[in-house]
Structure formats: structure tokens, C-alpha cells
């Protein structure tokens, strides 16, 4: 056997460049030190699965332009566009991508008119390391592409990620003679699992979009290998029947270090060791990155430290909480809005809340609020019937148990839903109340929402039909 070893570092979904109050303190500077200690720039392959330009309080001022100087210090060899790369439009996205010293790839989002890739001309990247060729592709899901304000369904062609993965995987292995094919993805777990179970041409899946740290081994159906037209034998010695999906947390708090053993002589993946690296305060900040962070945050620091009030309990702003059930942070935000606007009730998408951490009890500052709500958007009060409000609530829970951003945070109303029912019929109508009164289907209510939702995003197609109060 001719055994080759690879070191691969992977991370995804990073937003806040500064350190946090609690462990793991994270921060881009300490993160860079940790990457370097694990071989970044010294032989390890560094891969990123998208989302860095936004949202954060700094990105509100820079439109994401602060990120390339920081990410350029991390020896990244390949990156995939995430949904938040497009928050400030395609032109800003491409400007930031051009400012990076590493390539961005996109394998399945096309301009419908020109049939060219969006954001880049690279559908794949080949990396050579330790006498091995590794093919990298980048796949995303249609679900989030449809929520991007700068895109419309008529201008984009989002090709099926399984079909593209199968086609590119075969091309890379057969024509380009790649030993391994890695898919960088930015999609939810169910779609990653579908990709892993359906496309044997892909060996490893490194995901983003979900912010939890987790990995799974997905079993391939052996019969599936026989369904694909291939120039090489699909035997168990050639292609393993398991596929790894890995997601590496978020926000510079952690990353993954994989040690991969590959039998080059027999073209066989032998073993993978996965280390979860926590970026806590024992890592010293990288001085160069620290200077860049200071450059962008120093002017904002004094404003952000302004106290807004004291909270007596910790606030749960973790994505896994706010996107799956009622939380005190969601209630607080909506109750504050209700005191400021003339409305009967409030409905926001939980994807608006971005802190993804526990906010400790004590003094609550503008920095805390900015980390929770970094995406600036106008509020709109609309006139909506009870029947239309039920329709909106149905959409808000339609993707449960996926941790989707459309899951609601509400104020001034109550409801319950049955997740075992099919989407569109989950809301228990008798449980819905507005201002402590049972909802009346033909009654008109004043509902406060974000302009993002009024535009019909996140599946809230009922809102554009409602008049503004």
C-alpha cells in the first residue's frame, strides 16, 4: 500500500470578528492563531463553507469589506458563497470576492439569461497536496437562494445539487484523476443527507448554513453504485459505502481538524480522525489580524459600550433555540416593538436574531443589541385579516423541525401548532389569540413586520397582499 496523509481544516459561518465576553471568547485574531498552530499555511488544506460578509454590526458600516483583509490571513485554499455573501447585492459580493487571496467557487447557481455562474467563473477547484489530487465543488440549496432580495426566480437557474454533484464528481475523478472529491455545501442537514446518500462520486461533505457543530456518517445503498454510468468499477474496494457530513460550528468559536489517511495504490479512503478545536482564551491573538480588527472596531467601541439597561436573567439567543421554540429574547424584542408602534401584534422571522449565544444577566449594552439585531431593516405595520394571519403562521412553522429563519418570534398573540401534521395544516386554530382574545377570521388586525417579510421573503407570500396602515 502507498499510504498518504492529509490534514484538512474546515470552518463555516463567521460573522463577529471581535472577541466575546464568555468562553469560548473566539474572535478572528485568536482563531487565526489556532489555525496556524494546526498547520494553516504549513501544509494543511483550509476550506471555508460560506457566510462571512454579513451580518454583524461592523458589516453595517463596511458592507462586508472588512472581511477580506481578515480572511486573507487564514491561508484559505477554497471557499463557497453562502447566503449572506449577497446581503449587500451581487456587485458588493463580487468586489469582496475579488479582494480575497483565495478562490470562491459556485457549482450550481447560474444566471438564467447568460447561463454563466453567479459570483465566479469557477465551478470547481483542484488542490494538490502530499502527492494527491483533491477536487473541490460548491453546492447550495434552492431554499435560501429564493430568499435573497437581490435575486429573482426569473434571473436565476439553481440547478439540482445532486445532479451537479454527480456530474462534477464523475468529471473530477475520471477525467481529472482526482483521488478525492470534497463538496463544500451551504444548506440544511436534510439536503446534505440527501446529497450524501445519493451521490457516491462525492467522498466528503463539509457543510455550512447550520451553525451547530456536528458530523454524521451516511450509509450509501450499495445498489446505488450500480446505477451510475462510470468508466471505472464500482466495487467496495474502490468506493466506500459511507459518506461523512461535517459542520464546524460558527462565529470563529471553533473549527475542525481532519486527519485523512488514503491508500493511493488501491484508491481507497482508509481512515478519518476528526478533532474539534475550540477557540478559547488560551490561544493568543494573531497580532496582524488583531490590528485589522482594531482598525474596523475602534471607532464603534465607545458607542457600543453605552448601557441600555440591566437584565436580571440570561437571554437565550442560540440559533437552535430561537428557530425551534419560544424564547425570552424573542419575547423581549417583540414586546419592545409593541411599545413603540401602534399595532395589535408583532411577527418577525427568527433569522433576524444573529447573536447565536447566551446573553449573560447584567448590564445590557448597545453592543449586545447590535450583535442580536445587526441587520438594519424598516418596520411596516400592515392591515391583515385573521384568516391571512393564520396563513402567515402556517408558513412560519412549515419547515419545522429544520432550524429555518422563518420560524417566528411574536408579540401580542399566542398560538400552538402540531408538528406531526403536514405543512400548511399545523396551526391549531382554536389556540390562536390576539391581545388575549380568540382570533376572528374576518376581523382586521394591525400587524407589525419587517420590510424584508413585507416583500414576501421567507415564504410569507401573504404579506404583500396586505395594505400598509
Automatic annotation (TrEMBL):
It holds the Pfam family 5_nucleotid_C. GO terms for molecular function: hydrolase activity; nucleotide binding. Keywords: Hydrolase, Nucleotide-binding, Signal. One of its GO terms (biological process) is nucleotide catabolic process. Residues 8-213 form the Calcineurin-like phosphoesterase domain. Residues 309-463 form the 5'-Nucleotidase C-terminal domain. It comes from the Eukaryota. InterPro entries: 5'-Nucleotdase_C, 5'-Nucleotdase_C_sf, 5_nucleotidase/apyrase, Calcineurin-like_PHP, Metallo-depent_PP-like. The keyword Nucleotidyltransferase does not apply. Belongs to the 5'-nucleotidase family. PANTHER family: 5'-NUCLEOTIDASE, 5'-NUCLEOTIDASE-RELATED. This is Uncharacterized protein. It comes from Trichobilharzia regenti (Nasal bird schistosome).
